[in-house]
């Protein structure tokens, strides 16, 4: 497997590698898909790391109401994850995330996947967390997305 800190598939260092997290991809399709989706297929976390688990975040405003439209909900869900990461002590926010699971509503389409991929790149920067996206029958409040993450404090 190729490690992010020593492989041409992962240019430069990231907040994750600076926190001791190893990011890996096997040669072949794993590496090709990892570049496309801005992810790592395998991640190692040091035993002494403080880990943050963020429960599912929806695209809701501070009043708990879903914001209008799929693109706005995706952005708001990312912002809500960021707020909770900062509240828990991850001063680098999304750049401390090593694992992300996104639950999508059943009407997921290519346009929304592209928005999601763009937000991952925007919020994670050079970090490439492991990622899983799942389409589910329904989400709370009829949301388009719910995101859970794991991060390290740094």
TrEMBL record:
Family matches, as SUPFAM superfamilies: YjgF-like (SSF55298)
Domain of life (superkingdom): Eukaryota
InterPro entries for this protein: RutC-like_sf, YjgF/YER057c/UK114
A Pfam family recorded for this sequence: Ribonuc_L-PSP
Designated name of the protein: YjgF-like protein
Organismal lineage: Eukaryota, Fungi, Dikarya, Ascomycota, Pezizomycotina
């Amino acid at each position: 497997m190729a490690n992010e800190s020593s492989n041409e598939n992962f240019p430069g260092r990231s907040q994750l590698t600076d926190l001791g997290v190893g990011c890996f991809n096997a040669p072949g399709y794993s590496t090709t898909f990892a570049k496309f989706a801005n992810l790592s297929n395998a991640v190692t976390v040091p035993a002494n790391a403080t880990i943050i688990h963020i429960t599912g975040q929806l695209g809701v405003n501070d009043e708990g109401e879903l914001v209008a439209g799929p693109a706005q909900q995706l952005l708001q869900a990312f912002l809500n994850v960021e707020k909770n990461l900062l509240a828990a002590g991850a001063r680098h926010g999304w750049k401390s995330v090593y694992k992300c699971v996104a639950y999508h509503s059943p009407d997921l389409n290519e346009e929304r996947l592209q928005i999601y991929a763009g937000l991952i790149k925007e919020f994670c920067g050079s970090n490439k967390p492991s990622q899983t996206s799942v389409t589910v029958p329904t989400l709370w409040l009829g949301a388009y997305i719910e995101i859970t993450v794991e991060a390290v404090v740094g």
